[in-house]
């Protein structure tokens, strides 16, 4: 008597036609929506040669915008890295009421428009805002100045490092930290010698994403900076100003800087993931229960 054969039910994508159509749509969308705009930026920027590109990039207002963007990133990225480590440590290593609420609040910038964040800072620190009279009385300027740009950038980029660390630290558990404490390690030693080495690749990737977003932030910074040319214009705002003034070559030249940051982030992501895979393959397999 013949044994009945268990036939697997066909899944979506098993058919050659379906697989070809899906892959074709993905590749076409990627080429049209992602690769083509980046290619156009570099093609337009270098259309008149390297000399014209360098001259367009060397405009004083563009150089000021690049410097202001770098200063903002140099402040925001370390602050967000420190905040991300502290927040991820608190959420994953301690049990306290409202832990999930804290995690949701930290991720709030992902779900709120940057424009709304900028307007909120305007209502708090602006001349007619909550602290406006106090700031004016003490000659402290936050809105339409560098402090406002930094505050808005910090708000928008706050979740990036936390988002990378929390899942990994949750998966790793507390066993190694508790073992280190039982051997006499202090809290700082546990953080420096156990926790951070275990999450270093996720931390680096979170910092790279944070840096890319800080340098490319437009909405919130546009509101709190006032977009004053040569004074409070960051690089994304400068690109818009140049394009509105019909300085197309200068706008595309400035855009190559941000596009370069994005490409650098992709390369960093690839290298970090490859280093992580190499580290995991080099580790001995853990026995169950250990």
From TrEMBL:
Main location as per UniProt: membrane
Protein name according to UniProt: Sulfate ABC transporter permease subunit CysW
Assigned keywords, A-Z: Membrane, Sulfate transport, Transmembrane, Transmembrane helix, Transport
Top-rank taxon: Bacteria
GO annotation, cellular component aspect: plasma membrane
Stretch forming the signal peptide: none
Pfam families xrefs: BPD_transp_1
Localisation: Cell membrane
GO molecular function ontology, one term from the record: ABC-type sulfate transporter activity
Residue span(s) of domain ABC transmembrane type-1: 66-267
Keyword Transmembrane helix set for record: yes
Membrane topology, from the record: Multi-pass membrane protein
GN (gene name): cysW
Transmembrane segments: 21-43, 63-89, 101-124, 144-162, 202-228, 248-272
InterPro entries, per database record: CysW_permease, MetI-like, MetI-like_sf, Sulph_transpt2
PANTHER family in the record: SULFATE TRANSPORT SYSTEM PERMEASE PROTEIN, SULFATE TRANSPORT SYSTEM PERMEASE PROTEIN CYSW
Functional note: Part of the ABC transporter complex CysAWTP (TC 3.A.1.6.1) involved in sulfate/thiosulfate import. Probably responsible for the translocation of the substrate across the membrane.
Subunit details: The complex is composed of two ATP-binding proteins (CysA), two transmembrane proteins (CysT and CysW) and a solute-binding protein (CysP).
């Amino acid at each position: 008597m013949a044994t009945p054969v268990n036939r697997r039910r066909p899944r979506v994508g098993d058919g050659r036609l379906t697989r070809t159509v899906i892959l074709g749509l993905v590749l076409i969308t990627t080429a049209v929506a992602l690769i083509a705009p980046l290619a156009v930026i570099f093609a337009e920027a270098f259309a008149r040669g390297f000399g014209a590109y360098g001259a367009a990039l060397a405009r004083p207002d563009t150089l000021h915008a690049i410097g202001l963007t770098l200063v903002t990133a140099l402040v925001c990225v370390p602050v967000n890295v420190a905040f991300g480590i502290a927040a991820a440590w608190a959420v994953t290593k301690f049990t306290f009421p409202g832990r999930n609420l804290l995690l949701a609040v930290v991720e709030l910038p992902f779900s709120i428009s940057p424009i709304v964040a900028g307007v909120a800072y305007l209502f708090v620190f602006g001349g007619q805002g909550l602290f406006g009279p106090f700031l004016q009385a003490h000659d402290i300027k936050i809105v339409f100045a560098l402090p406002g740009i930094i505050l808005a950038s910090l708000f928008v980029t706050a979740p990036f490092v936390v988002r990378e660390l929390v899942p990994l630290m949750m998966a790793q558990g507390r066993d190694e930290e508790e073992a280190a404490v039982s051997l006499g390690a202090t809290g700082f030693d546990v953080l420096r010698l156990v926790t951070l080495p275990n999450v270093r690749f996720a931390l680096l990737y979170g910092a790279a994403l944070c840096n890319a977003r800080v340098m490319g932030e437009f909405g919130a910074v546009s509101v709190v900076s006032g977009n004053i040319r040569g004074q409070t214009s960051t690089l994304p705002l400068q690109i818009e100003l140049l394009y509105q003034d019909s300085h197309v070559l200068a706008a595309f030249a400035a855009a190559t800087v941000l596009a370069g940051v994005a490409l650098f982030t992709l390369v960093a992501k690839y290298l970090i993931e490859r280093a992580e895979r190499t580290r995991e393959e080099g580790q001995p397999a853990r026995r169950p229960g250990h």
